Amino acid sequence: MYEWLRDTLVERLKLPADAVRPDAPAEAAGLDSLAVTELVMIAQEELGLDVDEDELAGLGTIGEVAAYLESRRQPAAR
């Protein structure tokens, strides 16, 4: 999922490639509120994920965003 996220952020949302690292703070990498909205739409359209925009916006690092998206891909364990 991280590779998909990195490619999407760099190629589609035009964030600087050197800033998109797993440990990078999401906002410092350029993942502002507009980028979050766009990312949610892309994840829903391309991956069929049910993503909560507010939850995604509250994450701290790019790695946390990737982990969140991955968690939305699989059914929750009960």
In helices, the fraction of residues equals: 55-70%
| Percentage of β-strand residues | under 5%
Q: On the 0-100 scale, what is the average pLDDT?
A: 93
Count of DSSP helices? Answer: 4
Following the backbone from N to C, one meets helices and strands in this order, namely HHHH
The number of E-state strands comes to 0
Which residues sit in consecutive blocks of at least 5 with pLDDT less than 50? none
C-alpha-based Rg, rounded: 11 Å
The largest pleated sheet is described as:
none
Overall SS class: mainly alpha
User: How far is it from the N-terminal to the C-terminal residue, by CA?
Assistant: 23 Å
The 3D shape can be described as globular
Description:
The chain is mainly alpha-helical and 78 residues long. The chain has 4 helices and no strands.
Give the helix/strand layout:
Layout: H1 2-12, H2 33-47, H3 53-57, H4 62-73
Short note summarizing the structure:
The protein has helices at residues 2-12, 33-47, 53-57, 62-73. It is mostly helical. The chain starts with a helix and ends in a 5-residue tail after the last helix.
